[in-house]
Amino acid sequence: MVGWKLRPASMADVEAVAELRAAVLKPDLVRLGRYDAQRVRQRLRDGFTPAHTWMIEVGGAPAGCVALRPAKDTQWLEHFYLEPDLQGRGIGSAVLSRLLERCDREAAAVRLNVLRGSPARRLYERHGFTVETEDEVDVFMVRDPLPARRWPLASAEGTRSETWPVGRPRLAR
To answer: Which residue range or ranges hold the N-acetyltransferase domain (predicted)?
Structure first.
């Protein structure tokens, strides 16, 4: 897998992300008969919130973005785009895993919508998302947080418990 990192987004990133969105979504939107070059970019500009968005960098250069927007009892995964030539290399899966671990720690469900027929749906299904509902254009998916267990951890005072997501026990410190 190619090395990557996340950095907080800023308003200076909005145009690059709008162009990336247009490139990534074009094949699916054309297939669905919904592609409008201006609209696809403007919808990103209208919904871009740097406080909830990270840029994905590969080799120090912007290569994608992802947003987690808080809502009541859930997080919405939005604007998850990766340069087409970097797709299929494990970067998207690794980024998604990191964000889901954060949501698991917060016991937050994660919701998203993906275009019907998009290959991205398989990525989301591999990470535990299931279909809630769908319409002629979008598939709405949800992933409940992994249940937490209490794992005993050693401390100077003896044993104490902390909550960790299932499948990720911590060794005694």
So the answer is: 4-149
H-run or E-run covering 91 = helix 91-105
User: How does DSSP classify residue 89?
Assistant: S
Please report, for residues 28, 54, 150, the alpha-carbon distance to residue 13 in angstroms, rounded to integers and kept in the order given.
24, 10, 41
pTM of the model: 0.82
Q: How far apart are CA 36 and CA 46, in angstroms?
A: 15
Token pair for residue 166?
């299932």
SS3 172: coil
The two beta strands, 158-165 and 74-82, are unpaired
Domain ranges of the chain: 5-165
pLDDT at 57 over 90: yes
Contact of 68 with 51, CB cutoff 8 Å = no
User: Does domain 5-165 correspond to CATH entry 3.40.630.30?
Assistant: yes
For 136-163, the pLDDT digits (tens) are 999 999 999 988 644 444 444 444 434 4
Mean pLDDT of 35-59: 96
CA–CA gap between residue 81 and residue 78 (Å, rounded): 9
